[in-house]
Structure formats: C-alpha cells, structure tokens
Amino acid sequence: MGSVMRKLDGTRIVVASHNKGKLAEIAALLAPYGLEARSAAEYDLPEPEETGTRFEENAYIKAFAAAEATGLPALSDDSGLCIDALEGQPGVYTADWAEKPDGTGRDFAMAMEKTESKLRDAGALAPDARTGHFVSVLCLAWPDGHAEYFRGEVNGTLVWPPRGDKGHGYDPVFMPDGFDRTFGEMDQDEKNGVETPLSHRARSFALFEKAMLGKK
Fold this sequence. Notes:
Blueprint: E1 12-15, H1 20-30, E2 36-39, H2 55-70, E3 74-83, H3 108-121, E4 131-141, E5 147-158, E6 174-176, H4 188-191, H5 200-213
Parallel strand pairs: 1-2, 1-3
Antiparallel strand pairs: 3-4, 4-5, 5-6
C-alpha cells in the first residue's frame, strides 16, 4: 500500500464473496452509504483458489480477481479464527475445517466439533487456556491491481457447547472478551455496534468507512 491512500470513486462495487452469511453482514454495513453492491455470484464469477498463507494475501486474491473480471472496484474479506492453544490454527484455513468430506459444501457444526476435539487433545479445558481471536482483513482492489487493506481483530474465549443460532460460522462457540454471551447469541446490531464496533468484521469495516466513505 502506497503512502497516499486511493479513495473509492463512484457508487458501484463488487463484493467478492460467495459466502451468504458474510455477504449479508457486509451488505448491512454498506447499505447506509448508497453503494450499489453486487456479489461475485451475481456476476457468475468463479471462486478463485486461495493460495495465500496470510489473510491479506487471500483477501487480495479474491478482490483483484473480481475487480479484473468486472472492471469495478471490488471489496473482499478474508477472516478466520486463531486459537492460542492450537498455535494460531485454524487461521487462514478456518473455512477449510468446515469442508464436508464428500466435497458437497461446508458444515460449521462439524468444524466446531473438530475445534473442540483439538482443544481437548491439547489439554485446553479451563477458560484461560481457550483464548483466541477472530481476524477480518478487508481488501479493496481496483482493476489496475492497486489495493487498500483494513484489518480488524477481536479477542475472546472458546466455549462449549455452542450457544445461540445467530450469526454464522464459528460464532456460537466464540465469546468476546467482556461479555457472557457468544456471537451466536448476539444480533447483527450488537455485533456491528455503530459507536463501538464489536466484531472483527465490524472493526475492519469501521476503518474502511473512515478511510473510503468519509465517516468521522
């Protein structure tokens, strides 16, 4: 990223994701700004292979592929759960842990069970041994390859059994610091708190809003 940040010009933007839960969250965050946001799926774009080992790398791969294909600025999110007792796993492979063995999609209930099994194998039973953080890196890429990045994180504790049926992914087993409820027990308004963003995605988006959309 250069020393001078490139501003978003125009109202059309591609959200470079096929994840319905993620799309709903980003669409809700974009709605107040009058941006015409369409998903990569609406453009019938294939999902590029995410070969990066860092969130920033994978976010760029997705955003640039969509920008190059459509000729429009594209916004992508690469996010994941990093668990201290598992040496930062699953990290960039968070969604991969949910892949069904038969290749027919993702099963996050299975992924949460896998995570819990690994925590138990590591002897991480007490709450203070089950710490971790969610990371969200937003990448805004242009067709010429330029990109800007915005990273948000939230610390918390992994709980078991899962609690709540809101949100998506690993939300039901992640309890953010300072709360006695999981993300799965919070609605979007609370997670995306306008004054004090709580979720990792809301925090990265707050940085995006301030830099790209002029929010104070």
